[in-house]
Amino acid sequence: MGNAIEKDVLIYHEADDSYFLGVGKTRSETYILLHLESKITSEVHYLNASNPTDEFRVIHPRSPGMEYGIEHHSDHFYIVTNDDAINFKLMKAPVDSPAKANWQTVIPHREDVMISGVSAFADHLVIYEQTAGLPTVRVRQLSTGDEHNIEFPEPTYDVSPGGNPEFNTKILRFSYTSLVTPGSIYDYDMQTRERELKKETPVLGGYDKTQYVSERITATAADGTQVPISIVCKRELRRMARIHSC
């Protein structure tokens, strides 16, 4: 009776239950990515979204201990990987031949900076890094090559990407918080470098962040390593401490 119900078609089956599987589109909406990740190993398959019935192709087959993630822009994939790079490095490869043999270095591995991720937009590449224990956000304008770091008002803080589904935009949304500032959502204009506070999590009990201040100092360990220390206290307490130290 009626039309026959079509059977579901199996696109991919992961036999190794130590891997998680996720599917999603690139921000550009040009490619569908199939992500496979274990605790220490990654594998990404890709498919042109205009031809969804084609077969997925693997970018680089899983290699134990090697992690990588993909962002798409124009005729390239940007690839963040820990391949021979404990702090990760940024590579790129042409979309028509993205095998590892064709990866080119965009940002090399550095001993003192860790790359935690990238986000690609129509005319900007956003690089999330960790330097001396603090997160930094670097914005590169792809049409000119100009770069700048987003400035944050406090000496110790945390920042992470927000929801950024749009590709053709100059607005970057990020989450910001510190020992003094409650969780906040900002929209940042990557062209003008202006930011707009969209939301700040209320803190009950009459909390007033202007009454507090934070600072970041370092202590020298026995082996000479500089260990960062974050401190928060009442603003009045720090003022009194400075008076007594004079």
Concise structural overview:
4% of the residues lie in helices and 46% in strands. It has 246 residues and is mainly beta.
What portion of the residues fall into strands of 2 or more residues? over 45%
User: How many DSSP H or I helices?
Assistant: 1
For this structure, the quaternary state is single chain
Broad structural category: mainly beta
Rg, rounded, reads 23 Å
Approximately how much helix is present in the residues? Answer: under 10%
Described by the principal axes of the CA atoms, the overall outline is globular
Structure description:
The protein is mainly β and 246 residues long. The chain has a domain at 8-111. Helix content is 4%, strand content 46%. The protein is built from one helix and 18 strands. The strands form five sheets. It has a four-stranded antiparallel β-sheet with strand order 1-2-3-4, with no helix packed on it. A hairpin with a 6-residue loop joins strand 14 (171-177) and strand 15. The longest helix has 11 residues, at 235-245. It starts with 19 loop residues before the first strand and ends with a helix. The mean pLDDT is 93.
Question: What key phrases describe this protein's structure?
Answer:
246 residues; mainly beta; four-stranded antiparallel β-sheet; 1 helix
Explain the layout of strands and helices.
Elements: E1 20-25, E2 31-37, E3 42-48, E4 57-58, E5 68-73, E6 76-81, E7 89-94, E8 104-107, E9 113-120, E10 124-131, E11 134-141, E12 147-149, E13 158-161, E14 171-177, E15 184-189, E16 195-200, E17 212-220, E18 226-234, H1 235-245
Antiparallel strand pairs: 1-2, 2-3, 3-4, 5-6, 6-7, 7-8, 9-10, 10-11, 11-12, 13-14, 14-15, 15-16, 17-18
